[in-house]
Amino acid sequence: MTLTKDISEEKIIFDVNKIRKDFPILSRKVNGKPLIYLDSAATAQKPKQVIDAIAKYYSEQNANIHRGVHRLSQRITTEYENARATIQKHIGAKHAHEIIFTRGTTESINLVATTFGNKFVNSGDEILITAMEHHSNILPWQQLCEEKNAGLKVGTISENGELLVEEFKKLLSGKIKIIAIAHISNTLGTINPIKEIIALAHAKNIPVLIDGAQSIPHTKIDVQDLDADFFCFSGHKVFGPTGVGILYGKEEWLRKLPNYQVGGGTIKTVSFAKTEYADIPLRFEAGTPNIEGGIGLAVALDYINAIGLSTISAYEHKLLEYATEKLSAVDGLRIIGTAKNKASVISFVIDGIHPYDIGVILDQLGIAVRTGHHCTQPIMDKFGIPGTVRASLAFYNTKEEIDELVKGVIKAQQMLK
Q1: pTM of the complete model
Q2: Active site annotation includes 375
Q3: Which of 9, 95, 113, 253 is positioned for an S-S bond with 140, CB 3.0–4.6 A?
Q4: Among the listed residues 266, 261, 269, the one whose alpha carbon sits nearest the alpha carbon of residue 279
Q5: Where are the domains of the chain?
Q6: pLDDT tens track for 364-407
Q7: DSSP designation for 133
């Protein structure tokens, strides 16, 4: 168990030391130092439950799905579809067939940009995104606009990294065919007012795609409550395997979209005269999928639900406040992204020192952070910087690790100046 209950206080107490025992990699050393992993926004570590589920698949269950009558195939098909139902429940989708397995957030966005764009976007139309998007939520739309002679509109952000909603509203013209926006910025930590944006868009009959790659590990998602048309995320960001992701789409939209990729698994009947394709979601899932990835993702979601997303969110917020206070006290350090509503991501620069150099020294101390532009070059252009050092926190991190980060930053500062 990772939680205990204090009967006298009638509340759940978060035991981070027990949590950490579920993550084997956190016990290793890097450069002779205990690993301090502060790069969960890039990829989160995996609990033993997920690792065991993947090992079990290959050692006891390996077979293809939706294709065989033999016992292994039948049983793993059932488990895979049960995983789809687990994901449906986790994000509050109405139907399991609204859940499409992909390789990750990037493929999910590309799927929508390609299929929606082919059917609904024409010359002179516009796509609306924001200035804080990950490259994966810029490039597919940029490419679509180039192919269709459409326009790419960009919502601006403030100096503290918040979306300027009033300015965003002014871009909601009749030319906008779809809005694509990050729920949480991977660089700034900004939590966007997604529900408000969706309501504004729907008032003008504009569908909305939400990049949920950074929100899915930190907060409860209910796509029906949000009224999202499309919502996508990656398994590896939410303590699951790499190479698997999810595209949620409202049934009404998925049925309108043309095929993305075709091949085995997407058909009902094939002849040289005509092919009849399968219904959703299989119509969008060509070829043998990442079977163990889908199963492992469901296990990861079960794991965080057993802890409780509200518990996780509250603990991570305390870590964020603590880290913000400690890092802000470092002379010459500037935090990039100071929105009032933030997730547990802190990007910072230090006067006169390149972020990469700081990252190298921190690595020598066993501290893993991300340095660079974090696939958000337009944000770096906005703030006039080459990149940042990013510390992204998860529920397996501790205040003691933050203290070591601060010490490491000060040491790097002293060595490099």
Answers
A1: 0.94
A2: yes
A3: 113
A4: 266
A5: 3-46+308-416, 51-305
A6: 999 999 999 999 999 999 999 999 999 999 999 999 999 999 99
A7: -
